[in-house]
Design brief:
heterodimer; A: 325 residues; alpha/beta; Rossmann fold; 2 domains; seven-stranded parallel beta sheet; five-stranded parallel beta sheet; B: alpha/beta; 7 helices; globular
């Protein structure tokens, strides 16, 4: 069995956890494993149907007030107990802030190997083979894990998802006791970004700006274009972030985020190696730059050589027209 | 306050990565090695805490003899002491193996540590595994991907980055904290610091001293392949009137690329 941890935020299962379940499920026929969803929280029984809707054969429910707020220590203990009892062949997580925080704790507790941030999973000679970027995507490493279970975090938005086949499976309730004194760190508050902007790792479209924007105020031009799309985010090059024009959460590249949206639009970005590493797995890349020799054009599917201040407003209008059709 | 900072020697971010296919490893010739960028934020945070709280900053790396160079850099920044835990094995990409070495070293050599600081990930293996694994092995709480840290007595508050916002974490010390860009601005080494760092003795901790069994030192990871991605090809370039190029681009994105 492959079990998938369901991350919950704001009373819902995160889409990328459901996607990870869909990946496990899509492989179920091919790989020969059944799939199960693992729900941990204060009161999360209401969420069971969404796991079945995505095709989980079983849902394991670990409910206890101590799990109401996320703590890596308590959640780590719960998942390790789940593995001890149910003995799945593998345990998957979405590679989110929580998944990356939690999966290594579970792995260490179990003495199991962990493949981080996978972009491809296959079965080779009966063993799960994980492929993951290293050096922010300058190279790809394929590996198998010697331990049982095998733990993996799956990068959101990169796996192809098939049609989900809903199932009505069994709900298994599990009691996990967390001994007093175990939890020495806990989340006391979640502070949302006021603008409620889409995170670059979760966006379908990213429009990123670099030094060519000349100043922080001109990121407004990018936000205008982003607003045309339903799920677009504003990204930035390292030099724009280091100049203090925009927050680090927007940085794409080797010391920022690695992204793979459907459409990546690089505006006024020359294309340093460390930036290209972070975005070259995007499906389609567009570059707008006044320098025809900029390295970004070597990786772009489409390029406009021109003044971004003249191109962007017109691009916004054209995109608006096209999307309204 | 006794602070331990863990750093790793990695190729700088402008490096072009080449593959040695027979050994499924990275070609190291010609690469410029540096302290992993996120680790520099961890070192800086430790130095800032020492300025306000007193205590010591000790820097540790697990690696080969060459890794001493990154320890010297940290000493030049102002760390009090540096230690090399000597591990001659090639990169395993297995976080658990490294975490076991570090956790045991902390228990045996660095008892009485209040805070263990790491970069949020090494730039290279990109695993983000070791710090949280060390925390689990030592039974400590953690805050990963932290952009703000405040220490008060035996507790700390950290702000950590999550999708679309921040989480505030309350920690009882000792604890593991991993540094994200934005936590601080790492200082440059001073000439005086560089000269002093050259003279400092860097003790070597041998793996055998840590008493780890062969099972604990075995890698869980078997590398089955290592490749560079296929080079993207340069595509179509549009030049001329901004209105026309914008219109043509949108047409291509819809009709040809089918992404909008």
């Amino acid at each position: 069995m492959i079990a998938v941890f369901m991350e919950t935020r704001d009373g819902k299962i995160k889409i990328c956890s459901l996607d990870a379940l869909a990946v496990a499920n899509g492989g179920a026929g091919v790989w020969g494993f059944a799939t199960a969803a693992v729900l941990v929280g204060g009161a999360v029984a209401d969420l069971v149907p969404s796991a079945f809707a995505l095709g989980a054969a079983k849902v394991y429910l670990i409910e206890n007030n101590i799990f109401a707020d996320y703590s890596s220590q308590a959640y780590g203990l719960a998942l390790a107990e789940f593995v001890g009892e149910v003995k799945p062949a593998a345990l998957f997580f979405a590679a989110t802030a929580m998944g990356r925080d939690l999966a290594p704790r579970v792995a260490a507790r179990l003495g199991a190997g962990l493949a981080s941030d996978c972009v491809k999973i296959a079965v080779k000679a009966g063993a799960l083979e994980f492929t993951r970027p290293i050096y922010a995507g300058k190279a790809f490493l394929s590996l198998t894990l010697r331990s049982t279970p095998k733990l993996a975090t799956l990068r959101p938005n990169v796996f192809p998802l098939g049609e989900a086949v809903p199932r009505a499976g069994e709900v298994v309730k599990m009691d996990v006791t967390v001994p007093e004194g175990t939890v020495k760190g806990r989340v006391t508050e979640v502070v949302k970004e006021e603008s409620a902007e889409v995170d670059v790792t979760e966006a379908d479209v990213i429009i990123s700006g670099g030094r060519g924007l000349k100043g922080p105020e001109n990121f407004a031009l990018l936000r205008d274009v982003a607003a045309v799309f339903p799920r677009a985010a504003v990204g930035a090059s390292r030099s724009a972030v280091d100049s203090g024009w925009i927050g680090h959460a927007h940085q794409v590249g080797q010391t920022g985020k690695t992204v793979s949206p459907n459409l990546y639009i690089a505006v006024g970005i020359s294309g340093a190696i460390q930036h290209l590493a972070g975005m070259s797995s995007s499906k389609v890349i567009v570059a707008v730059n006044k320098d025809a020799e900029a390295p970004i054009f070597k990786v772009a599917d489409y390029g406009i050589v021109g003044d971004l201040f003249e191109v962007l407003p017109r691009l916004k209008d054209e995109l608006k027209k096209a999307l309204a059709d | 306050m006794n602070i331990l900072v863990f750093v790793k020697r990695v190729p700088d971010t402008e490096s072009r990565i080449r593959i040695q296919h027979e050994t499924k490893s990275i070609v190291e010739d010609g690469l410029n090695f540096v302290v992993s960028p996120y680790d520099e934020y961890a070192v800086e945070e430790a130095l800032k805490l020492r300025e306000t709280k007193g205590g010591t900053v000790r820097v540790v790396t697990v690696g080969k003899d060459e890794a001493v160079a990154v320890l010297r850099k940290c000493l030049a920044m102002g760390a009090d002491e540096a230690f090399l835990v000597k591990d001659d094995s090639p990169e395993t990409y297995d976080g658990l193996r490294t975490a076991r070495i570090i956790a045991r070293a902390v228990e045996r050599k660095f008892a009485g540590t209040d805070l263990l600081l790491f970069g949020k990930q090494s730039v290279g293996a990109d695993n983000s595994q070791v710090p949280a694994m060390v925390a689990e092995l030592l039974g400590l709480p953690q805050a990963t991907v932290v952009t703000k840290l405040e220490v008060e007595g035996t507790s700390a508050t950290a702000l950590r980055e999550i999708e679309g916002g921040m989480e505030k974490i309350a920690l009882a010390l000792p604890a593991v904290v991993t540094a994200q860009k934005g936590l601080n601005e790492p200082r440059y080494e001073t000439l005086k610091g560089i000269m002093a760092a050259k003279k400092k003795d860097i003790p070597v901790v041998k793996l055998e001293e840590l008493g780890l069994g062969p099972d604990e030192l075995a890698s869980q990871v078997e590398v089955t392949g290592l490749d560079v991605p296929t080079q993207r090809q340069a595509g179509r370039i549009l030049k001329g009137d901004p209105a026309e190029t914008a219109r043509e681009l949108v047409r291509l994105l819809r009709a040809e690329a089918k992404v909008i």
